[in-house]
């Protein structure tokens, strides 16, 4: 790989905020609260905390630490472990690229709804509540009848997608120091907006009933493998690991920085945000239950349905400040997502490309942003939602988990978990013992592979994923195979040594 001068975070605070911002994203609002309710309330929280301690934090320490050790992004890290392993750094780069290509489309939806909230475009009162679904799937997405029918582009979404990528380019092309200054505010702002949403939520009638559904424990659920699958999968997704970017973010850290402490701070801050968001979500769910006299099972509290159907329903039914709360909520989603998009595109994709080919930051940023925008156009078509779902299953489930498990195995066994632990302990206030070695070498890979097998292979091999036609569901395996092959191609490409290397 070509050598480049390694950039640095301006200070420790900005690095911590960058790490927190990369981890906190849309899933904190629309996935965690639902999983907590679905898998036994307080019981899920127990499994989730266990997963954070035995999987999430050791995994984050590994990605930060090995990135700092080699002072490279993901491909350079694994090339440093052994040339034959460079492909393992490129595979998650492709996953990061795919994720950010559709993630930015969701940010475009958020901007669309922030604008629409000014007039409550889907309607007020019970009529608006009844029409919220049609507005999202019909008016905004113009959803086609299946993955095989793309239909035309939804031009308002294309324009907002271009705006989103323009913002990302301006935030990224000046590098880590500039990103660190930006994410300080893009982390603080959504926290402040979440507080506003929570205050409004808990003042609505029925809020307490919704919060009871969120937190009421069901200890019998701890015996269910479904609960542990949900908890472990949420830990894997929520910390933005397995997406290549944390290696690069770790490489921007000074060699004397405290990696272990920072990993704990970033992990717990992210999970505290998830827990806090649950109060905002389920106070609103309780309001909808009371306002429409429906059971909690009839209120969509997860995924896209929560963000773009359920919350618009609540906004339509609110007794006051409807438009303001709508604008606040969807701007909150946008700011929650923009940090993750920054992380994915810069740490996950641009930094590895710069390391490999020695491109300038501006040139690499322009190329990657342009290509990702073009790929993202697929998700602005009438059939885009189906393909977003398929690519999400490919990259943000299988790709993330498989590459994460393999990375922990290679670092733990080939590079040496004890060697990395010693490197971390040299500069850390929190000294970890030999127990950490076995978490990295055995427990984290086993937990990730459990999620892949139990929630993936056992579901998608007997029947096509999501009920899609076989040809569409099979694209999951085609894309995984194609990106793996391209990872080996990039490993085989020889780059010219820099002038500094040539003198050695």
Question: How would you sum up this structure, described in words?
Answer:
With about 500 residues, the protein is mainly alpha-helical. It has a single domain (about 10-504), classed as Amino acid/polyamine transporter I (Up-down Bundle), CATH 1.20.1740.10. It is built from 21 helices and no strands. The protein has helices at about 10-25, 25-30, 30-40, 40-70, 75-80, 85-115, 125-140, 155-170, 175-200, 205-215, 225-240, 245-250, 260-290, 305-315, 320-355, 360-375, 385-425, 435-460, 470-475, 475-490, 500-504. It is globular. The chain starts with 11 loop residues before the first helix and ends with a helix. Mean pLDDT is about 90; it is low at about 495-504.
The CATH topology turns out to be: Amino acid/polyamine transporter I
Could you give the order of the helices and strands?
A: HHHHHHHHHHHHHHHHHHHHH
Determine the mean pLDDT. Answer: 89
Strand content: under 5%
The CATH superfamily is Amino acid/polyamine transporter I
Count of helical regions: 21
Radius of gyration: 22 Å
Characterize the overall form: globular
From the N-terminal CA to the C-terminal CA, the straight-line distance is 15 Å
Classify the helix fraction into a percent range: over 70%
Structural class per helix/strand content? Answer: mainly alpha
Q: For the record, what CATH class applies?
A: Mainly Alpha
Largest sheet: none
Uncertain regions: pLDDT < 50 for 5+ in a row?
497-504
Which labels suit this protein?
mainly alpha, about 500 residues, 21 helices, Amino acid/polyamine transporter I, globular
């Amino acid at each position: 790989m070509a050598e480049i001068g390694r950039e640095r975070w301006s200070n420790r605070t900005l690095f911590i905020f960058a790490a927190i911002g990369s981890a906190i994203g849309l899933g904190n609002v629309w996935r965690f609260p639902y999983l907590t309710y679905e898998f036994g309330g307080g019981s899920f929280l127990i499994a989730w905390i266990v997963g954070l301690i035995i999987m999430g934090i050791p995994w984050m320490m590994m990605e930060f630490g090995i990135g700092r050790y080699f002072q490279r992004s993901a491909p350079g890290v694994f090339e440093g472990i052994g040339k034959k392993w460079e492909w393992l750094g490129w595979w998650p780069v492709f996953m990061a690229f795919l994720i950010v290509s559709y993630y930015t489309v969701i940010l475009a939806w958020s901007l669309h709804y922030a604008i629409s909230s000014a007039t409550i475009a889907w309607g007020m009162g019970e009529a608006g509540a009844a029409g919220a679904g049609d507005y999202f799937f019909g008016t905004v997405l113009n959803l086609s009848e299946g993955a095989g029918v793309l239909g035309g582009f939804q031009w308002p979404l294309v324009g907002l997608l271009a705006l989103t990528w323009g913002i990302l380019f301006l935030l990224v092309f000046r590098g880590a120091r500039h990103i660190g200054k930006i994410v300080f505010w893009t982390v603080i702002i959504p926290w402040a907006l979440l507080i506003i949403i929570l205050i409004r939520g808990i003042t609505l009638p029925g809020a307490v009933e919704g919060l009871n559904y969120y937190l009421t424990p069901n200890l019998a659920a701890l015996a269910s493998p479904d609960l542990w699958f949900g908890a472990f999968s949420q830990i894997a997704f929520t910390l933005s690991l397995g997406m290549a970017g944390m290696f690069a973010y770790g490489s921007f850290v000074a060699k004397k920085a405290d990696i272990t402490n920072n990993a704990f701070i970033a992990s717990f801050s992210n999970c505290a945000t998830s827990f806090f968001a649950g109060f905002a979500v389920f106070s609103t769910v309780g309001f909808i239950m009371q306002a429409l006299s429906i059971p909690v099972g009839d209120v969509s509290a997860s995924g896209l349905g929560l963000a773009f159907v359920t919350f618009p329903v609540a906004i339509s039914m609110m007794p006051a400040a409807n438009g303001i709360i709508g604008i606040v909520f969807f701007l909150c989603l946008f700011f929650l997502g923009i940090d993750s998009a920054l992380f994915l595109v810069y740490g996950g994709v641009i930094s590895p490309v710069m390391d490999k080919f020695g491109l300038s930051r501006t040139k690499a940023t322009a190329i990657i942003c342009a290509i990702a925008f073009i790929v993202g156009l697929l998700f602005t078509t009438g059939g885009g939602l189906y393909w977003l779902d398929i690519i999400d299953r490919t990259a943000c489930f299988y790709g993330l988990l498989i590459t994460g498990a393999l990375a922990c195995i290679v670092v733990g066994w080939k590079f040496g978990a004890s060697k990395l632990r010693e490197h971390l302990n040299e500069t850390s206030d929190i000294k970890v013992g030999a127990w950490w070695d076995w978490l990295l070498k055995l427990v984290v890979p086993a937990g990730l592979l459990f999620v892949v097998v139990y929630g993936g292979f056992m579901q998608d091999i007997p029947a096509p994923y999501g009920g899609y036609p076989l040809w569409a569901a099979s694209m999951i395996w085609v894309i995984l195979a194609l990106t793996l092959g391209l990872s080996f191609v990039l490993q085989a490409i020889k780059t010219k040594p820099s002038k500094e290397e040539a003198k050695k």
